[in-house]
Amino acid sequence: MAVSTADHAVVADPGVALAAARARRGAGRVLVTLARSVAIFVPVFLVATFLTFALRSLSGLSPAHIQLGESATPDAVARIEHQWGLDRPFLAQYWTWFTNILHGQLGTSWTNGANIAELISNGLAVSLSVVVLALIIGVLFGFGLGTLAAVRRTTWIDRAITGFLTVFSVMPPFVVGIVLVTVFAVGLGWLPAAGYVPASVGTWPWFTHILLPALALSLDPMADVARQLRSGLIAAYQENYVTGAIVRGLSPRRIFLRHVLRNGVGPALSVLGWRFPTLIGGSVVTEWIFGLQGFGRFANDSAQAGDVPAVQGVLVVSIVLVVTFNLIVNIVLGRVTPASQRGV
Amino acid sequence: MVRRVLALPTGRLAVGVLSVIALLAILGPTLAPHNPLGTSALTLTGPSWKHWLGTDYLGRDVFSRLLAGSRTSVLGSVEVALIALAVGVVPGILSVYLGRGFEWFTLRIADTLLALPFLIYAVAVTALLGNGIPQAMFTVGVLVSPLFYRVTRAATLAVARSQYVEAALISGASIGWIARRHVWGKVLPPVAVALAQTIGVGFVVVSSLSFLGIGVQPPAPTWGGLLASDLGYLSYQPWAPIVPALLIMATVWGSNLLADAIRDVSGEAGRALLNSRRARARRLNPAEPIPAGGAAR
Amino acid sequence: MTRTLPDGTVTAAVPAARPADPPALDPPAAQAAALAVRDVRIRDDVNDREIVHGVSFELRPGRAVGIVGESGSGKTLTCRAILGILPAHFAVSGGSIEIVGRDIAELTTPQWTDLRGSTISAVFQDPASYLNPSIKVGAQIAEVIGVKTGLRRRAARRRALELLTAVHLRDPELVYDQYTFELSGGMLQRILIATAIAADPQVLIADEATTALDVTVQAEILDLLADLRERRGLALVVVSHDLAVVAQVCDEVLVMREGEVVEHGSTADVLYHPRHEYTRLLIAEHEQYGLDRYLAGEQRKELDSVH
C-alpha cells in the first residue's frame, strides 16, 4: 500500500490530501484485518489455556503420587502439594500459571523437575522440521493437483486426480506412515526407517530422516488443499466477473491467472488454516512411528506418565502455534481477497 | 431422503461398505475362529488354512484378533459421532434464539475447540483422565462437536432470517410448529452430512488413539493396536498391515462417500448433475463446454 | 436523432473537460453494419427446446437498437449469443451473427479474445458481480487498457483515470483505489461502463444495465450512454424489460415475447403506432407508471425549443 501511495503523489497534482486519505485507507484495511483476527484469536487463546489449566483439577492427579507412589501418607501428600502450590485457590493458581506462560515460563516437570520450556524447545525443532516440510509438500502438490483438476475438469485427468485424492484423504497418517516405512525403508532400503539427525550435522541426512514422516503428514493437507482449490476454482469460474472479463476481451490464460486463481484460492487457504491443528496433532502419531523425539512424542510420553505440567506446556505451545499460523493465514487471505474480510 | 441416497450409485456403494463394516462389528467377535487372546508357539507365521491371516509375534491368530477388535473400533466412532451430535446441535440451534451473549460465548467455545490440535488433546485428556475407552470417546466427541454446532447454526440462521418463517410468525404459527415444519427440514440434511463425516473423523481419531495404545488396555485387540504391533515386525511380515489398513480406509471412505451422497441429493448440486446428464444424452458431441473464456462452443 | 434527457440536475453534474480523442469512426465504415443479426435461433439442449425463434436486426455505427421484453423472452440469450457467451447447454441453432462483417461462428478462441473489448463489449445488470471483488476497480480498467492497447502501467493508469472522469465519476483518484464492495450501484455501473469502453469498442451491449438502480441514477446512466454514443460513435444495443428506458436512448426497437420478435420498427413508430397487442399492453402499462414522464419531457422539450 505504501508503494501505491508514493506512486500517487507523482500522478495526482491536487493530491496531497488525497494521498493522505489513501494511505489512511490502505493502512486501515490491514489494521481492520489484524483487529478482526485478534478479536477472534484472543478469546480462543484464553478459553484454550483455561481448559488446559483445568485439566489438572479434572484429572485429580498430583505430583505426590508420582514421587511417592500410591502408598504415600496423607501428610506427605499434603506437604508435597503445598510445595507445588497446589493447595492455593484454583483461580489464584490459574493466574500465576497464566502470567508465567505469558513470560514464556512453562514450569517444571513433576517427574524429574526439569524445565519444561527447555524440554519442549528441544522437541520443537524436530517437530517443526517435519511439520513445515509436510506443509510445503502438501501445499505445492495440493496446488498443482487442484489446479490441474480444475482446468481439465470432467476429463480423465480430473477423475484420476480426484480418485487419488480420495485415497489420500481416507488414509490416516499412521497408515500412510506404515506404508511408507514398509516400502521405502524396509522394502527398498532407500531411506532410514527411524531417527533424527539435526540439520547442523548435515543437510542431506537431516532431510532424509524427516522426509518420510513429512510425507506421511502431508497427504491430508494435500488432499484438502487440492479439493478445496479445485472446487474453489470451479466455483470462481461460474462467477459473473469471469463473464465480465471474457467480454472485456481478456485471454483465458490471463483470466485464470489474475482473476480466477486469486478468488478461488480463498477456501484452500482457509482450509489450510484450520487443518493446521490436525497436522500438529498428527505429529504425535508420526513421531511415534518414526522414532522421533519430537514434541508430539513428548506429549504422549508425559500424558502416559501423568506429568500434568509437561502436558499443559505442550498444549500451550501447540495452541500458540495454531493461533500464530492462523493469524498469518488470515493476513494473507486479507491481502489476496479483500472482500472476504468485510465480516461474513 | 434414504430412498434418494440409495438411488445414487455412490450412495448404494457407501451404504454397502458401511453395512459390511457394521456386520463385522456386530457379529465379528462371535465369528472369530480362535481365541483372540490365546497365544501359541507358532509366532509370525504366514497365512495358512488354519490361520487365514497368519499369527502375530505372540502366536495369536490375526484374523480372530481383527474380528474381535472390530466392535471396539467401529462402535467407538459411532459413539464419538453421537456424543458430538448431542453436544453440538442444541447450542447450535439455541445460539440463534437465546440472545447475543449466549451466541458470542458459544461461538468462542466452538472457535477454540476447532483450533485445538485435537489428537494431542485427545491423547492428553484421555491419558490424564484415566486411560479408558469412555474418556477417549467423550473427549473426541466434544472436540469434534463444533462441526455440528456450525452446521445447525448456519441452517437455523438461514431459516430464522428467511421470509417464510417471518410470514408464518406473523400469521400466528407457534414456535414449536415452525421448528417442526421449517427448521427440521432444513437442519436435518446438513446434520446427516455432518454425522456421516464425523463417523469418518471419529474413526480415524479412535484408531489413532488405539494405535498409540491410549484408551485400551494392552491385550484387548483393536484395528489400530493391530497395526501398532505389526510395525515392530515389518521386516518379517511386510504384508501384515495390509488388511487392517484396508479395513480402516474402507470405513473412512464409506462414511465420506455417504456424506457426499447425502449432500448431492439434498442440494443444488444434485439438480445440476441431473441436468448435465440429460443434456449430454441429448447432444451428439459429448464434450462439455469449458467456461475458460473463449467461445462457448 | 439524438435526444438528450431533459434532466437539469444530471447535465449540471457533467464536467466540461473530457479527453480530446475523436470518435474512432471513419465515414466509409459508417456505411457498413457494425453488428448484423440474421434470423438467429437459440436452443436449450437440456429440455430440447428452441428458446429464441429468429431474431434479426442490423446496427450501424453511432446508432442504437433497443430490445424490450419480459424476463424469459429470450432477449438476454440473444445478447449472450452475440457475445459468444451462451450458458452451458445453450447453442445457436440457426441464422448468423456478424460483427464488423465477421461471422462469429467461424471465430477461434484467440480471435474472440481479440474481438471482445476492442470491437464489441457489454455491461450488465448487477455491476458489482461483473467486476472482480479482489482487485481495485481502477486496476481492472487499467488492465483492459494495458492488454488491449499495450500502454505501459503509468500511461494505462492515466488513461483509466480519464475514463473514470469520462463516465462522470466525481473524485476518480479516490475511486481508482477502491474495491467493489466499497462503492454504490450507480458508481459501479459507471465503472463497468468505463471498463467496457476502455479499449474503444464499436458496439456496446447494455443488458438491463439500469434495472437495479433507482430512478435518478438510472436516468444518469442512460444519459451517459447517449453521451458516449454521440461523442464516440458507439453503436448501442440496449436491452431492458422497461420500454421507457429503451425509448429514451434508441432509434429502433424490437419487442420480444416468448422468443419471438412481435414488433420491430423505429422508436416513434412502435410507441405511437403499435401494431401488436403485446406492445400496446406494454405502452398502456407505462402510461400509468413510467412512460408518461418521458412523454411529458418530450413535450416540455418541444416547448423549450419554441422559446
Low-confidence segments of chain A, given as residue ranges, are 1-15
* H/E topology pattern of chain A: HHHHHHHHHHHHH
Helix proportion of chain A: over 70%
CATH superfamily annotation of the largest domain in chain A = MetI-like
What is the CA-atom radius of gyration of chain B, in angstroms?
24 Å
Q: What general form of chain A does the structure show?
A: globular
CATH architecture of chain B: Orthogonal Bundle
Strand content of chain A: under 5%
- The CATH fourth-level homologous superfamily of chain B: MetI-like
Percentage of residues in strands of chain B: under 5%
Helix content of chain B: over 70%
The CATH topology name of chain B reads: MetI-like fold
Overall pLDDT of chain B: 76
Q: How far apart, in Å, are the first and last alpha carbons of chain A?
A: 24 Å
The termini of chain B sit apart by 37 Å
Multimeric organization: heterotrimer
Low-confidence segments of chain B, ≥5 residues, pLDDT <50? 284-297
Q: What's the CATH topology label of the largest domain in chain A? A: MetI-like fold
What is the level-2 CATH architecture name of the largest domain in chain A? Orthogonal Bundle
- Give me the secondary-structure category of chain B: mainly alpha
Structure report:
The complex is a heterotrimer of chains A (344), B (297) and C (307). Chain A is mostly helical and 344 residues long. Chain A is 78% helix and 0% strand. Chain A has two domains: 15-102, no CATH class; 116-342, MetI-like fold, CATH 1.10.3720.10. Chain A has 13 helices and no strands. Chain B has a single domain (52-270), classed as MetI-like fold. Chain B contains twelve helices and no strands. In chain C, the strands form two sheets. In chain C, strands 6-7-8-3-9-10 form a six-stranded mixed β-sheet, sandwiched between helices. In chain C, helix 6 (153-166) crosses helix 8 (185-196). At the A-B interface, helix 2, helix 7, helix 8, helix 10 and helix 11 of A face helix 4, helix 5, helix 9, helix 10 and helix 11 of B.
